[in-house]
Amino acid sequence: MRNLGKVRPSRKSQSTARNLVGVRKQLNISKNTTSYKMEDELYSLAERAMDVAIMEKKFFFKIYDYLHHNKAKRKVATEFLGSSTAQNIETTITELEEYIKGGSDADHKYLREAYHHIGKPEARKIAKYLHQIIDDAKRYEYDKRPGRRKKAVNK
Question: What is the pTM (predicted TM-score) of this model?
Answer without folding.
Answer: 0.71
